[in-house]
């Protein structure tokens, strides 16, 4: 099976990315609505306090609404980053289907993916201590802010690939000038 062009593996993966993109957009919208609902419900705290205690996590108190909203905001920001990544991949795959992998715009798209992955990873480091505070230190609910070598390796690989695509686009531009 072919990797590039119409009817290729790239075409199939583009369809999968379209479905994932739509699901991420719906999820981000649902989380945004949930944030608004939690903030509105926080004006009537007895509604949010009904769960009481969940495991070792005490869900009672006036801080419950803002903590839940902040947690949902973190999830929504992560979803928005994922939307950026999948959106960039969709546009890259459009160029693959068109048979033009070294489109100069793919360099920027790969850089957007690398930066977004890095920001998401840094966001995880920021969110871990906040989550630990929100769930109390004695809770079994454990978030780690440890360094993920896989995530940083992915960022570096994509950054290098963006430079490979930059060189490919440059060489293609030179070849087009050759008679």
Write a structural description:
The structure is a single chain. By secondary structure, this protein is mainly alpha-helical. It has one domain (9-177). It has helices at residues 9-41, 45-48, 64-97, 104-134, 149-177; strands at 53-54, 57-58. It has a two-stranded antiparallel sheet. Strand 1 and strand 2 form a beta hairpin. The radius of gyration is 22 Å and the shape is elongated.
Q: First CA to last CA: what distance?
A: 33 Å
- Work out the helix count: 5
- Strand share of the residues? under 5%
Q: In this structure, how is the largest beta sheet organized? A: 2 strands, antiparallel
Q: Helicity level, as a percent range?
A: over 70%
Order of helices and strands: HHEEHHH
Low-confidence stretches: 137-141
Question: What is the approximate shape?
Answer: elongated
Number of domains in the coordinates? 1
Put the structure in a nutshell.
By secondary structure, this protein is an all-alpha fold. The protein has helices at 9-41, 45-48, 64-97, 104-134, 149-177, and strands spanning 53-54, 57-58.
């Amino acid at each position: 099976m072919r990797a590039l062009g119409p009817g290729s593996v790239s075409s199939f993966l583009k369809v999968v990315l379209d479905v994932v993109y739509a699901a991420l957009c719906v999820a981000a919208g649902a989380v945004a609505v949930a944030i608004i609902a939690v903030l509105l419900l926080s004006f009537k705290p007895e509604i949010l306090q009904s769960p009481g205690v969940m495991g070792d996590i005490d869900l009672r108190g006036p801080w419950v609404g803002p903590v839940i909203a902040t947690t949902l905001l973190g999830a929504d920001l992560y979803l928005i980053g994922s939307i950026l990544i999948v959106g960039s991949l969709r546009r890259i795959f459009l160029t693959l289907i068109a048979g033009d992998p070294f489109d100069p715009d793919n360099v920027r798209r790969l850089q957007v993916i690398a930066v977004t992955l890095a920001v998401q990873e840094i966001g995880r480091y920021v969110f871990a201590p906040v989550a630990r505070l929100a769930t109390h230190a004695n809770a079994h609910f454990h978030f780690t802010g440890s360094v993920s070598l896989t995530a940083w390796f992915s960022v570096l690989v994509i950054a290098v690939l963006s430079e490979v695509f930059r060189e490919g686009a440059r060489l293609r531009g030179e070849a087009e000038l050759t008679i």
